[in-house]
Design brief:
alpha/beta; TIM Barrel; Sulfite Reductase Hemoprotein, domain 1; 2 domains
Length: 351
């Protein structure tokens, strides 16, 4: 799975058969250092493995240096337009930077960045973005934006490789699923470097999560992607949660609980949505990794269709039945649900 080459950022390996890493990006401006520190702490608890931080100008050096010192998660400085910002971020001690080939085109400036990155042992991500493609790049690709996106990465990648700089991650992202997928297929077929994947500006809520899941699932299912971000409008923790949900769906990562629940139908004995909420409320926090819990509305969808679940609950005519890997273990009335489920789950976990 993933790329043959790998890089290491603050002791965490990306690529080279490492697990697909989950990333996010701070929503809090860097000028609010305490707010950033709080968001970093929340992301660390949620399982985020790399956080990108927008570094807009050199006046934020003190804030970036402070966050590097307090963060439990590796930090990547996100750089646009000016190579001097990249050098400033590296001088602060950041161990990785992202540069955008769409708006950082100075060959001399890039050479200066490479010299500092090499001296510091830092990783560089070449992050091309569909929204940053310039007219020259699009024209050279005869209007094919996916080809232009891949070519933008290749152009800057060539400069790094020619300079014998190999601590590289490549990324080609767009708000279009098809455009992103095609660009990544092109790059993956040609280069061994670790690849960061995502659908940029995916949106919010259900639409954003679905768009991300379709695009990322399409790439991951083809063995493309060593690190990923779900780019959603809203809380950064939600990005991490959706990312792990995608990876759980593909059996690639097992963080947290896999909750299986039926949609409900005319056979249901209980309000399934209410039952899910009651079960979620008593699942331990943090939840055990890799645990499958099923919540079903009736005996048909209960032990039989959810037989693979470690532990499950199904509605019955008189209340509920608890089962473990398809075998009923006890039943009870609606009022006994929380106590019975909590006790049985505790017993199951210590087996």
């Amino acid at each position: 799975m993933g790329s043959s080459k790998f890089v290491t950022i603050n002791g965490t390996r990306f690529g080279g058969n490492a697990p697909v890493r989950v990333e996010s990006m701070l929503k809090t401006p860097l000028s609010d250092a305490e707010g950033c520190a709080g968001e970093l702490d929340e992301l660390s608890k949620s399982g985020c493995e790399l956080v990108r931080i927008a570094f807009p100008d050199e006046s934020c050096k003190a804030d970036l240096k402070y966050l590097i010192g307090v963060s439990k998660v590796p930090i990547m400085a996100d750089i646009h337009f000016n190579h001097k910002f990249a050098i400033a971020a590296l001088d602060c001690g950041v161990s990785s930077i992202r540069i955008n080939p769409g708006n950082m085109t100075s060959v001399e400036g890039l050479a200066s960045v490479l010299a500092v990155a090499r001296a510091n042992g830092a990783v560089i991500r070449i992050g091309a973005n569909g929204g940053s493609l310039n007219n020259k790049q699009i024209a050279a690709a005869n209007g094919d934006r996916a080809s232009a996106l891949a070519a933008a990465v290749e152009e800057q990648l060539g400069l790094l490789v020619d300079a014998e700089f190999e601590d590289i991650v490549i990324s080609a992202k767009s708000s279009s699923v098809n455009e992103t997928a095609r660009a990544n297929f092109m790059l993956s077929a040609k280069y061994p470097y670790p690849m960061h994947i995502g659908i940029t500006e995916a949106g919010s809520g259900i639409d954003g999560a679905v768009k991300s899941a379709v695009g990322l699932g399409l790439l991951l299912g083809q063995g493309i992607g060593d690190t990923m971000r779900v780019s959603l409008t809203g809380d950064s923790k939600t990005e991490v949660e959706v990312a792990y949900s995608i990876l759980r769906s593909l059996d690639m990562r097992k963080r947290g609980v896999n909750l299986i629940s039926c949609p409900g139908c005319g056979r249901r004995r209980v309000d399934v949505a209410e039952l899910v909420a009651r079960v979620k409320a008593v699942i331990p926090d943090p939840a055990p990794d890799g645990l499958d819990i099923a919540v079903m509305g009736c005996e048909v969808n209960g032990p039989r269709e959810a037989a693979s679940a470690d532990i499950g609950i199904a509605g019955t005519e008189s209340g509920f039945v608890l089962f473990e890997r398809g075998v009923p273990v006890l039943s009870g009335s609606p009022g006994e649900l929380e106590e019975s489920f909590t006790r049985r789950l505790r017993e199951f976990l210590i087996k």
